[in-house]
Amino acid sequence: xxxxxxxxxxxxxxxxxxxxxxxxxxxxxxxxxxxxxxxxxxxxxxxxxxxxxxxxxxxxxxxxxxxxxxxxxxxxxxxxxxxxxxxxxxxxxxxxxxxxxxxxxxxxxxxxxxxxxxxxxxxxxxxxxxxxxxxxxxxxxxxxxxxxxxxxxxxxxxxxxxxxxxxxxxxxxxxxxxxxxxxxxxxxxxxxxxxxxxxxxxxxxxxxxxxxxxxxxxxxxxxxxxxxxxxxxxxxxxxxxxxxxxxxxxxxxxxxxxxxxxxxxxxxxxxxxxxxxxxxxxxxxxxxxxxxxxxxxxxxxxxxxxxxxxxxxxxxxxxxxxxxxxxxxxxxxxxxxxxxxxxxxxxxxxxxxxxxxxxxxxxxx
Length: 365
Description:
Layout: E1 26-28, E2 33-35, H1 37-43, E3 52-54, H2 61-69, H3 71-79, H4 96-108, E4 124-130, E5 137-145, E6 150-154, E7 164-167, E8 172-175, H5 177-180, E9 186-192, E10 195-202, H6 206-227, H7 233-236, E11 246-252, E12 262-269, E13 272-276, E14 286-289, E15 298-301, E16 314-319, E17 324-329, H8 332-346, H9 352-362
Antiparallel strand pairs: 1-2, 1-3, 4-5, 4-10, 5-6, 6-7, 8-9, 9-10, 11-12, 11-17, 12-13, 13-14, 15-16, 16-17
């Protein structure tokens, strides 16, 4: 992404030179900012606004002067002066859709210079939703109501009663273009009877989809402001939406450890480890709560010596106060990544509200 404190360009044979190897190799000679290579490709999608050039190319004196006069810090002060607290600021690890719409919002639509150019972040409209049973994407009406504290969708345009009501309290949204198979694919999750429910949606218009995403964040922000009146924006913003810590296939066996291992899709969502038969299933086949080391949760590399029935050779054992969970990964690299994800959660002390979640898992039928 665009660094906030770029080096000033040096004049040497009318080229921009960066003395640090980590500095960006591209600059927008119309906006006067340095950009990384990934963002330079996105800037090329708005050539009427931004014209990018390699710092290794020969520059005219006027071009050098423009970048020297502006720079990233001044550009940020200008183009990001009125970014709402809830608006998602993407990083280089986010999907192309989020990064491109952030660039367009700043430089093409000037949304953060002029409040009147910002969309009203309340949403009602139609999204393509994947059917729970048949896997087909059908147009469904969605309504996000802060007053009711819920996101609802309707199977028919004139329906009076919603098909589902998703409370803002447990709502999350994360872009999943590869999983859904659409560049604008969004995965929405919420708790239903304290179990996770997945909804997969998309819209053909990229801006519309990002507006929905930020509308959910706005609704979550206002809900949390009421729920935690003394909390600062800096404390609330990280709680608005979250990406999953890790996803991928592993094998698992049952509680007796005598059943054959079965391949399942796993999603690590904070302390909830969920497994699905298919990545696009609406409901998890099961969920595992991952507590902290202070509460006797540990993760081990490998499987108990007597374990049989696995096809993948890179085992993981999660020890909880009640039982052991056995998993197997296809590669050593996947095993390392999963263990690292589990360890991050286990090393973090549990918050008071997480003890109630743990208790629910222990009493699940």
